[in-house]
């Protein structure tokens, strides 16, 4: 049984990665329904949170059915991260996660996210102060290092564990790689197999099929796998992996009607949570993924992503469902 403090996650948990503009409550609800064991909010700016910025505060919304759930924060100033941790403590998530992995320029080049990999002593000090500022279990998500010359994750993992983090998720790329090339899981395995490590180690990067999940579990020995991009528009991946690991057999892939139902649920929850205008606009990035691989779908996809009228979008989705026999996978 994998545990983070007293949170039981099962024998081999599957985690939903925190993804900016993706892993909001509507998306998380679908991933939970389809088998995610532990989920995280989108990352929240510590500066935004302590200044009460509306967008940052809204990301604190969590719901009982999502548990266990972690709230993830990022920032470059230790004092701001401490204050953000104190705010989050009062919202009562199951854990607090620190983002030391985001590679995007506007975050990393300000010394936050993966940017702090260039200053490991500061990373250790910041983590220590966050741990002191909350009663929650503190976990960390990070990368192998800043670039090929600084893949120091084995040392970083030991130092973070020594000051009290309770789990570590590692994306198998450096910051310089962004999301290019293949994720290198050999260093993730080195962390996991380090005799000094006692906390759960979760691997992240490129797991997009049940076969790969099982192969990586067996080859690298991690305690669980964190899934990000492969779940966008395909929340079924969690249960598909679990079923394959248990039986060696594949679950039937979702058909057209199931995909429409998921897209409708996602849309309706988005509108309810964010309001009609924002909910409709933010759903547009998901339709391509929900209906990926369907032949001759271009016109319907175009209608879904260009319309801003809720009833019109629902009409298109209902038409696709009612005429599902007209569609086939390429």
Largest sheet: 8 strands, parallel, barrel
Distance between the termini: 41 Å
Give the CATH H-level superfamily of the largest domain: Aldolase class I
Class by alpha and beta content: alpha/beta
Please tally the β strands and state the result.
11
Portion of residues within helices: 40-55%
What coarse outline follows from CA principal-axis ratios? globular
Classify the beta-strand content into a percent band. 5-15%
The oligomeric status of these chains comes to single chain
- Gyration radius, in Å: 20 Å
CATH class of the largest domain: Alpha Beta
H/E element order: EEEHEEHHEHEHHEHEHEHEHHHHH
Whole-number mean pLDDT: 94
Summarize the structure.
The protein is an alpha/beta fold and 330 residues long. It is 44% helix and 13% strand.
Structural write-up:
The strands form 2 sheets. This protein has an 8-stranded parallel beta barrel, surrounded by 5 helices. The model has no long low-confidence stretch (mean pLDDT 94). Strand 1 and strand 2 (7-8) form a beta hairpin. The chain is α/β, with parallel strands linked by helices and 330 residues long. Helix 11 (256-274) packs antiparallel against helix 14 (310-322). The protein has 2 domains: 3-247, TIM Barrel (Alpha-Beta Barrel); 256-326, Non-ribosomal Peptide Synthetase Peptidyl Carrier Protein, Chain A. The chain starts with a strand and ends in an 8-residue tail after the last helix. It is built from 14 helices and 11 strands. The protein is 44% helix and 13% strand.
């Amino acid at each position: 049984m994998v545990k983070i403090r007293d949170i039981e996650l099962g024998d081999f948990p599957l985690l939903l990665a925190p993804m900016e503009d993706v892993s909001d409550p509507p998306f998380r609800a679908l991933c939970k329904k389809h088998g995610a064991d532990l989920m995280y909010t989108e990352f929240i700016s510590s500066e935004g949170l302590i200044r009460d910025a509306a967008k940052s505060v809204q990301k604190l919304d969590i719901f009982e059915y999502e548990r266990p759930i972690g709230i993830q924060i990022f920032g470059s100033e230790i004092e701001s991260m401490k204050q953000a941790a104190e705010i989050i403590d009062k919202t009562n998530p199951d854990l607090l996660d620190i983002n030391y992995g985001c590679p995007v320029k506007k975050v990393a080049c300000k010394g936050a996210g993966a940017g702090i990999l260039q200053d490991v002593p500061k990373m250790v000090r910041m983590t220590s102060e966050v741990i002191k500022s909350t009663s929650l279990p503190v976990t960390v998500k990070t990368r192998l290092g800043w670039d090929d010359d600084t893949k120091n994750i084995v040392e970083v993992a030991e130092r973070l564990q020594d000051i009290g983090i309770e789990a570590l998720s590692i994306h198998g790329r450096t910051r310089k790689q962004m999301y290019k090339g293949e994720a290198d899981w050999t260093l993730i395995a080195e962390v996991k197999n380090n005799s000094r490590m006692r906390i759960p180690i979760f691997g992240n990067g490129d797991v997009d099929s049940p076969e790969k999940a099982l192969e990586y579990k067996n080859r690298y020995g991690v305690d669980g796998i964190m899934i990000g991009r492969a779940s966008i528009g395909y929340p079924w991946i969690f249960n598909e992996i679990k079923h394959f690991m248990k039986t060696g057999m594949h679950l039937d892939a979702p058909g057209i009607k199931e995909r429409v139902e998921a897209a409708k649920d996602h849309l309706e929850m988005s509108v309810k949570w964010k309001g009609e205008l924002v909910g409709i606009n933010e759903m547009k990035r998901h339709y391509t993924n929900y209906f990926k691989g369907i032949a001759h779908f271009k016109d319907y996809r175009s209608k879904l992503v260009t319309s801003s009228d809720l009833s019109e979008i629902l009409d298109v989705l209902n038409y696709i469902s009612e005429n599902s026999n007209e569609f086939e996978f390429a």
